[in-house]
């Protein structure tokens, strides 16, 4: 299975400051069709996860543009340019390039 | 508006069975692949099972032979038959849509508790 490793696991951030989460995969997520199947999800306390980013850097509808994704092959990053109070919760990366789909352990973002 | 509504969770003893359902609306259900993803209390997300539009299936190793995913396209409903349940199967189970090797829509989840 592809192992997804996120860091940090805990991320205290001051409101208005930037934040960055990294995600490493144990194998390349570049698929034979030329796409890289890495997604990012956000889960607020008590809610279902919501996808933010798919195929490394594509925003889902309604996702604020302060979120951005980047990376390639085995190293990926989710960045928040200016953290807002609604951004608290846990962030997960997920790969869909190889079966089984696998998730990172999650990064808990909290406000300092 | 697209919506996924899971049901069927509850408390069951080890070795028991449950059947989860996921009613989909606002989708052309038959055209898509569907997954079950679970989350144990206070833990992360774990992929469990997938069913392709053609009915072929995949499972994570720990549930193979005990959990069975199925679909009823006429009813726009996804199922997860859970047999020989173990304490470690305790989790919220989410029904999710596969969208080109990613997951986009999530249901609200249904809690399965396996305990004596």
Alpha-carbon distance between the termini of chain B? 40 Å
Residue share in helices of chain B? under 10%
- The number of helices of chain A is 0
Number of strands of chain A: 11
Q: What Rg of chain B is obtained from the alpha carbons, in whole angstroms?
A: 13 Å
Low-confidence region ranges of chain A: none
Describe the structure in your own words.
- The complex is a heterodimer of chains A (112) and B (116).
- With 112 residues, chain A is an all-beta fold.
- Chain A contains no helices and 11 strands.
- In chain A, strand 5 (50-54) and strand 6 (58-59) form a beta hairpin.
- In chain A, 36% of the residues are buried.
- Helices cover 0% and strands 53% of the residues of chain B.
- Chain B contains no helices and 11 strands.
- Chain B has strands at residues 3-7, 10-12, 18-25, 34-39, 45-51, 57-59, 67-72, 77-82, 91-98, 103-106, 110-114.
- Chain B is globular and about 40 Å long.
- The relative contact order of chain B is 0.32.
- The model of chain B has no long low-confidence stretch (mean pLDDT 97).
- The A-B interface holds A 31, 35, 37, 39, 41, 43, 48-51, 54-55, 60, 90, 92, 94, 96-97, 99-106 and B 35, 44-47, 50, 58, 60, 94, 98-104, 106-109.
In short:
The complex is a heterodimer of chains A (112) and B (116). Chain A has strands at residues 4-7, 10-13, 19-25, 38-43, 50-54, 58-59, 67-72, 75-80, 89-95, 102-103, 107-111.
